[in-house]
Amino acid sequence: LTKQTAAVVLLPLALLAWRGRRWRGLLTLAAAFAIPIVLASIAFGTHDFVHWVFTSNGGYLDARGSFGYVLALGVRQTAWFLLGSAALVVLLPFAWKYRRDDLDLWLWLGSGVLAVAAGFRFFPHYYLQLLPPLTLLAVRGLDTIRPGLRARVLLLAGVVAVVAAVSFLVPAFTNGQTRDTTIALDV
Question: From the centroid of its chain, how far is CA 176?
Fold first, then answer.
């Protein structure tokens, strides 16, 4: 209930519910989505709950006057995420062959991309919702590669993962202060 954009995962869930139990599955999903919201609203007071969860974000989607900044931020944060997840991203093209079988995973990934972009904020933690479907699709991709090529792809993915990890970790340890300690010292 703290991240409204997470509701976009209802699209792949609706597909799975429809495939499994048709209308009954969709009604069960709708109830499973609505009941926690209603209970939280009752627990915290409907007026305050609606304000903080739904209506207090009036300017959230307003990017007037800052389009260049938003675009640069989106490109930069997405590039960092892709670098950090490159070992998974490398395997995505191999998973595309089974896109019809894994439609729910592709919808999950696509809806996650929409959720990351919604609001034009591009906070790094927003990208975490992309990791589960990306990981499952990468495993599917790895599974579809013939054994001779699999070893080379795994080696490439491993090298990419190590390079990404080093690029993230080295700056944190070379200047003596991490971002966390800098924030802690400023407080």
Answer: 31
